[in-house]
Amino acid sequence: MSQKLDPMDIYDVRSLLSEDEVMVKDTVARYVDDKVIPLMQEAFEQHQFPRHLIHEVAELGLLGSSIDGYDCAGMNSVSYGLICQELERGDSGLRSFVSVQSSLVMFPIHAYGSEEQKQRWLPAMAKGEAIGCFGLTEPHGGSDPSNMKTHARRDGDDWILNGAKMWITNATIADAAIVWAKTDEGVKGFIVEKDMPGFDTQEIENKFSLRASVTGALFFNNVRIPKANVLPGVSSLKGPLSCLTQARFGITWGVIGAAQACLDEVLAYTQERILFGKPLSNTQTIQIRMADMSRRITTAQLLSLQLGRIKDQGRLNPTQVSMAKWNNCRAALDIARDARDILGGAGISAEFVPIRHMLNLESVITYEGTETVHQLVVGKELTGVNAFG
Q1: Closest of 109, 106, 110, 100 to residue 126, by C-alpha
Q2: What pLDDT, in 10s, does the model give residues 325-366?
Q3: Residues of the chain with pLDDT under 50
């Protein structure tokens, strides 16, 4: 006789994981259940990032988890994906924090930084003692990084940085910002420290998405950057784009967790909600809608798992990440929207998770490349023609 399937894992993806990967997933899942989910409703409502979680996720080894050495955990890519999945099951804001710290700050320091920069920043960031942010998107638009206006010019051994960045996660709590700027020598990455004269940050208020996350703007007015704070290993758009590939990979996993949280809520609600003399879950319409959620989640799980295996084999093509980011974000957002609708009036209450995940996912489907950007990346791969612009 066949065994009953896990509603959150219809294709038994868990059986395809190694013992270490299962341990990572279960450890983070318990943490999210015990410490994250109970406080996220209030954090979202109060528009506050629960900063005490930084120390806790650091103690679990979740910051810079894929980096070897420098007090980092040295996990594989699939484990990093599972971390993102479980964290976003709690809230996209917490997963965003970990994504930025790990993929957009620690990764470029590790990949393109000097040994001195690695020794100074990576252990502190792994412990949560130093927080980072990533400055690429600018006020005039984020989908065309080659059109950035932020620039730096040489002044002796130093650089003078001017410009602004917008929609930056961790902006006002960061100890250092990895800022990408145009120079006469190509696009360079600069480690801008919070106390450098001419560097200012401002938090973005009145958000109705990612409310349990810090989002802000960065401003640079003749900021003097010493040579020791320039990433020496890259002088082109390859630098920031490679960081985005890392972060997008984690997002493809993260949104699965948000979708699972919404389906789990709907399963429980429709079994208890009695209409016209029977539970909602007993109706064909509701079963078909929940089955569709399960289909989308299962497809996303298999896409991300294969993506992780390819990445761990060193064969990753950014187009593969774009396809998964496009598919999985769209699936998760559609699931969250439908879950909110199934809950009826209760669906607009933060007492239930779908409205919070739905609002968060409106940002997640937009940042790290909009849906259209990823569709065009895949289109370019298929046709060989660049249709951007």
Answers
A1: 106
A2: 999 999 999 999 999 999 999 999 999 999 999 999 999 999
A3: none
Selecting among 272, 368, 371, 381, the annotated active-site residue is 368
Per the CB < 8 A criterion, the answer to whether 161 and 149 are in contact is no
**3-class SS string, 276-336:** CCEEHHHCHHHHHHHHHHHHHHHHHHHHHHHHHHHHHCCCCCHHHHHHHHHHHHHHHHHHH
Phi, psi of 64 (to 5 degrees): 65, 35
> Quick check: 204 and 230 in contact, CB under 8 A?
no
First to last CA, the chain: 56
> Both tokens of residue 128?
């949560």
CB–CB of 354/343 below 8 Å?
yes
Return the bridge partners of 163, or none: 220
Residue range 132-229 forms a domain whose CATH class is mainly beta
86 is catalytic: no
Helix (H) or strand (E) holding 242: helix 238-272
* pLDDT tens digits, 278-315: 999 999 999 999 999 999 999 999 999 999 999 999 99
Those residues with Cβ within 8 angstroms of residue 367's Cβ, 6 or more apart along the chain or in another chain: 137, 142, 167
- Rounded to the nearest angstrom, the gap between the alpha carbon of residue 266 and the centroid of all alpha carbons in its chain is 24
CATH annotation of 238-383? 1.20.140.10
Q: How far is CA 299 from the centre of its chain?
A: 19
CB 220 within 8 A of CB 150: yes
Q: What is the DSSP string of 349-382?
A: STTSSHHHHHHHHHHHTTSSS-HHHHHHHHHHHH
How far apart CA 162 and CA 149 sit, in angstroms, is 9
- Name the helix (H) or strand (E) containing 44: helix 37-46
Q: What is the pTM of this model?
A: 0.96
Structure tokens at 82: 């599972």
Other CB atoms within 10 A of residue 14 CB: 14
Q: Domain spans of the chain?
A: 13-126, 132-229, 238-383
Task: Evaluate whether the domain defined by 13-126 bears CATH number 1.10.540.10.
Answer: yes
